[in-house]
Specification:
membrane, 3 helices, mainly alpha
């Protein structure tokens, strides 16, 4: 478990940046297909969650 947590701490920023790009791609493809505003809510929430995780990771790295 400790190795897994160290891995997550080390690669938190690139991991979350990748998922921000993924969710932006999902929003783009969904907009191109059906242009339904309801389908943007879940990816937008995940983008906000990834941004929060990046913020926490940066603050944790500043403390260390």
């Amino acid at each position: 478990m400790q190795k897994f947590l160290l891995f997550l701490n080390k690669y938190a920023i690139p991991f979350n940046a990748f998922f921000i790009a993924f969710w932006l791609y999902m929003i783009y493809t969904n907009y191109a297909n059906n242009r339904d505003m309801k389908s943007f809510i879940i990816p937008a929430l995940f983008i906000v969650l990834c941004l929060f995780n990046i913020y926490v990771a940066v603050n944790k790295k500043k403390k260390d």
